[in-house]
Design a protein that fits this description.
Blueprint: E1 2-5, E2 25-28, E3 31-34, H1 50-54, E4 61-64
Antiparallel strand pairs: 1-4, 2-3
């Protein structure tokens, strides 16, 4: 599953964007989003999703259950 950013909770601080090893996070009109096709949940890079670790607002970066769990190649 990819992560997603709850737009209504995003403060636009940009803490998550540089932490993403897959460059899956982008900004639009002051709010950040995650491209699900690029998100690997940081598997193979880190033990914890870096967007979750960097975000100052709890439960803003959450699992997007609309996408299947990421499978490392």
């Amino acid at each position: 599953m990819a992560y997603k950013i709850v737009g209504s909770q995003c403060t636009g601080c940009s803490a998550c964007e540089p932490e993403c090893p897959n460059q899956a996070i982008y900004e639009k009109n002051g709010v950040f989003f995650i491209k699900p096709e690029k998100c690997t949940e940081c598997i193979g890079h880190f033990d914890e999703a870096q967007c979750v670790a960097a975000c100052p607002v709890d439960n803003t970066c959450i699992i997007d259950t609309a996408y299947p769990r990421y499978q490392a190649a």
